[in-house]
Design goal:
With 317 residues, this protein is an alpha+beta fold. Helices cover 35% and strands 28% of the residues.
């Protein structure tokens, strides 16, 4: 007979004695865990970000949209003070995604966030998330984020809030990218992203701050897979690009074909890319081929670049 362990709740204060001093720094380093729970590609921008005389716990970016995300944490149950802070911080950073984390979400605050999700525009999403710790017998604690409040369409994974003003072209982009991220998530575990946007590009976390993998439709009816580097300043960005380019021959051998090395001298960022003909206006059969091509080369880009990025200076930053 199989012996089963006993699942036990763990007091979060036994692991993080203080929310600001322990939990927030841990979350800043492990923001991917929260993103995975919400179906978002989150990247840390700043911890304790200034908003006038106040400080936001965590400012992040949704890589899929490039928009600001604010995260406010508290131990215990939600309260009016943090609800007010949440709205203040959202306006201060023009955030599109607002995340409130607590041990328990009070009914009145759940109702308030549900109301905001119903009344705000299609580009603004409110989440309320509980945090719990468990262990089996005497194992290490396991953290779990539980979404309690979320946007109307989030649970279905069928796209963002409907908009009567969305053009057919924008809707075509949303449908294409929804299919792309669904397959990358469910079949290849490449991303935790859940909801696509009506835009012509999508970026995915590389696990290294300031570096993303991406796919887009661009000018000239070309589709592109890329490694995009933007470390916040031009000098370290170009240094990393140049360092990778010194290994160009080996990288392209591992990739299986030549790549486009774009230092982008007039910009802060740089990229390594692969192109093919393709447009959102192509017939469905061609779009299916483009999607398959995108998946194949995003996976290949990660396989080839990840071990090299791990050896770079950025991995120790």
């Amino acid at each position: 007979m199989t012996d089963f362990g006993e699942l036990k709740n763990v007091d979060i204060r036994s692991v993080w004695p203080h929310e600001a001093a322990f939990f927030t720094p841990w979350l800043a380093k492990n923001i991917k865990k929260l993103g995975d729970a919400l179906g978002l590609e989150l990247e840390l921008t700043e911890q304790e970000a200034d908003v006038g005389d106040f400080a936001l716990d965590i400012l992040a970016k949704d890589l899929g949209t490039g928009r600001n995300v604010i995260i406010e944490n508290q131990f215990g149950g939600t309260n009016h003070d943090h609800l007010g802070k949440l709205l203040t911080y959202a306006s201060g950073y023009d955030a599109s995604t607002i995340i409130w984390i607590a041990e328990t979400i009070r009914d009145e605050h759940r109702q308030a966030l549900d109301w905001l999700n119903q009344r705000t525009d299609a580009s603004t999403d409110f989440f309320a998330v509980t945090v719990e710790l468990f262990r089996v017998d005497e194992s290490k604690p396991v953290v779990r984020f539980n979404p309690v409040v979320y946007p109307n369409e989030w649970a279905k994974g069928q796209g963002h809030k409907p908009s009567d003003s969305r053009s057919p072209r924008a809707e075509a982009y949303r449908v294409f990218f929804q299919q792309l991220i669904d397959e990358l998530r469910d079949k290849y575990h490449f991303t935790g992203a859940k909801v696509a946007q009506p835009q012509n590009w999508y970026s995915f976390s590389s696990g290294f701050s300031g570096i993303t993998y991406g796919f887009s439709f661009g000018q000239g009816d070309r589709a592109k897979v890329e490694l995009y580097i933007d470390l916040g300043e031009s000098a370290p960005t170009k240094e990393l690009f140049d360092w990778l380019q010194t290994d160009k021959q080996s990288i392209e051998k591992d990739f299986g074909e030549p790549l486009s090395w774009e230092r982008l001298e007039d910009r802060r960022a740089s990229r390594v890319a692969l192109y093919r003909p393709g447009s959102i206006d192509d017939e469905q059969k061609i779009q299916a081929e483009i999607k398959a091509w995108a998946i194949q080369n995003l996976l290949k880009m990660k396989r080839v670049m990840e071990p090299r990025l791990s050896k770079s200076k950025i991995s120790n930053a």
